[in-house]
């Protein structure tokens, strides 16, 4: 946990947007922010904003160009924090003015109204095999090989991944989710922590575990919802 962020009132949190050619509503939200029809002080992108955006895989950048351009434009005037997920990573060259948090640096400590909050995309407490896979797929040498294959064979790797994502039911409810969360949190140092906030699971749930309050962020892809930070209610769910 290398740094501590200060969350401001009117900060906005988006998680698991899973942008593809069938899901384009998020662009309208960003345009509202650009025009200040929706006023925000900060933007927190909590991972899996794209179905597939990988720095070093050229085609994934090309197909998401309008979003990349708009986010970079917004980053000129608004603080944007991007917690890389399992579908979007190695993004430093794509978003030069956005503060990026790779998976290995998550969770990050944040402060709001003297409360300590841990922020993460959500896949940091997965199995050992998944942890090894994550390190391999993020390796720059591996990405160069994948990009070479992708570019020389009609982007077949990227297209297969995106096609599978379109057909996948990403909004299903997870059985015994509260118990799963409780078990996962045992592996995190929660001393003096008030909130743990993450995405990834698309469950839109809030649990009070006495020691901390756990929030699984709503998935924008599932219900067009996001969270606005308001002084009166702290974390308020809004719908587009």
Characterize the overall form.
globular
Structural class: alpha/beta
Indicate the proportion of strand residues: 15-25%
Q: Considering the protein shown, what is the CATH homologous superfamily? A: Metallo-dependent phosphatases
Order of helices and strands: EEHEEHHEEEEEHHHHEEEHEE
- Main β-sheet, in a few words? 6 strands, mixed
How would you characterize this protein structure?
The structure is a single chain. This protein is of the alpha/beta class. The chain has a single domain (4-239), classed as Metallo-dependent phosphatases (Purple Acid Phosphatase, chain A, domain 2). Helix content is 31%, strand content 24%. It is built from 8 helices and 14 strands. It has helices spanning 25-34, 58-63, 65-74, 128-137, 140-152, 156-167, 177-185, 220-223, and strands at 4-6, 11-14, 42-45, 53-54, 79-83, 88-89, 99-101, 108-112, 115-120, 195-198, 205-208, 213-216, 225-230, 234-239. The strands form 3 sheets. A 6-stranded mixed beta sheet has the order 1-8-9-10-12-11, with no helix packed on it. Strands 7-5-3-2-13-14 form a 6-stranded mixed beta sheet. It has a two-stranded parallel sheet with strand order 4-6. A hairpin with a 2-residue loop joins strand 8 and strand 9 (115-120). The two termini are 32 Å apart. The mean pLDDT is 91.
